[in-house]
Amino acid sequence: MRARLLAGLFISLLATQSWAAEENSAAPFPVGDAEAGAGKAAVCGACHGLDGNSVDPQYPKLAGQSAAYTSRHLELYKSGERENAIMAGFSAALSSDDMHDIGAYFAGQTALTGVADETLVEAGQALYRGGDENRGIPACLACHGPGGGGNPLVPYPALSGQHANYSADMLRRYRDGAVYGEGANAAVMADVAKQLTDQEIDALASYLEGLHAR
Known about the structure:
Elements: H1 2-23, H2 34-40, H3 45-48, H4 67-79, H5 85-92, H6 96-107, H7 118-130, H8 141-144, H9 164-175, H10 188-193, H11 198-209
């Protein structure tokens, strides 16, 4: 178990160093205005909830998500690098400042944690915390944190409390080869998820919904 954890942490360190080297030559990531973002995010509330806690599990919770991750993916929707007809329409009218403001607003909200299926917790927890050394699958916590709070510096997203349906759908997309954007870390999840079975994906997704960030 200790060996798996160390391997996962090592992979995370390499990814972070790679990202840092790429970003050091660029301007610092802009800090959005959360107060301004509250008004701009009102239109998002229909699907994602006014506070970022969506009721419909097909729409992800945005509450507590890092501002860097949210604004980056809004940019990807706008550019077409991440395809979604609804989000393409919403993001088309947003400026970069709008995206940073919206990201800042949702980052300041608190994600409501759901309840994991008790029959899936053991399998989901084993993968999240230990990975599978034999298959080269790193522990999820190496990048997303022990409590699923993510790593806003890279940025790797917060996962705790996310709807199981949405997490499972995303993992299957990654398993099928989905890559969003470019850069050193863009294909990380596609490489990890390609070895996951449907049962493992469902177990992980359920575990994440009940995971409390800390």
